Amino acid sequence: xxxxxxxxxxxxxxxxxxxxxxxxxxxxxxxxxxxxxxxxxxxxxxxxxxxxxxxxxxxxxxxxxxxxxxxxxxxxxxxxxxxxxxxxxxxxxxxxxxxxxxxxxxxxxxxxxxxxxxxxxxxx
Length: 124
Hints:
alpha+beta; Aspartate Aminotransferase, domain 1; globular
């Protein structure tokens, strides 16, 4: 288990070089898809917030966990069917290319979802 940190750079440097490269690619993809999102550490892993939490990710021994919430999984079930996933997480194996186009679609979906929720709250 990684030591607690409050910094995404420190979090990433705690992994082997090959994993660091994948984590940095995932990080850049998320930032590109949601440039206004605030990057932080939450639940001891990198997280992104924009009108609410968007997504999280974490490095593990054999995979990278990507946490786009349940709605981010449900809407993309057909596209993730060949990956290991559960109600709230998708696992990207370290020995396969990251599906960065899919990550972009999921993050953009989550941004839109959070904006819609925020607009509804503002109308009340």
